[in-house]
């Protein structure tokens, strides 16, 4: 069911400092910053040869990564996103297996303009998993 | 400097349960378990189309993931491993930029039989980064 790893998301308290780490210190290719107010984050993409890392900084008062950064003030790996071909079929299979889908169970349009779902970390060894239909 | 994402490592308290989650619930291809006593972990590989996820369970009394699981009893994303062409050149560049390499600064032979180094999470937004020479 799982396809490619679309991205690994890292929540950071200071996006400028994070961009400097990845661009100057690690020598990676880092995109311009994009504010995504409807998702409550500002994001940059670190392009690797086979996938990407997304660095996320909170944006606005109700950012979905605010609680994570309260618990992990330095930042940390926040979620991993896997591609699926059919997100409704994936959701139905997961729910039949007893896994919990966050929110109302219906896909939302994610930061890349594609339908996404998040799975409850308690059902997957403490890892927040995003599924994205591609 | 950074090449492919070689793997994302997830520390888990119960490898059998984790294998069941990834194989049966998520429908992923999961390897047989491999005990790596010299690395203090038992590991399985989840094969994705473009990279892999490694599920790590502590093995023995001095497992390098024991402290992480004490802080995160359900498990969680533990580190991300990037490939580099020349690990000594990578280390020297990182140290010149002020980043801290864990241990004595010399590469060790990692779980895949290749030279590896770990970078201090405090220098990279709370993310433990492994570099592997390929």
TrEMBL record, chains A, B:
Enzyme class: isomerase
GO MF term set: metal ion binding; methylmalonyl-CoA epimerase activity
Top-level taxon in the UniProt lineage: Bacteria
Record-listed E.C. numbers: 5.1.99.1
Domain named VOC: residues: 4-134
Catalysed reactions, semicolon-separated: (R)-methylmalonyl-CoA = (S)-methylmalonyl-CoA
Keywords assigned: Cobalt, Isomerase, Metal-binding
Family under the similarity heading: Belongs to the methylmalonyl-CoA epimerase family.
Stored NCBIfam families: metmalonyl_epim
Name under which the protein is recorded: methylmalonyl-CoA epimerase
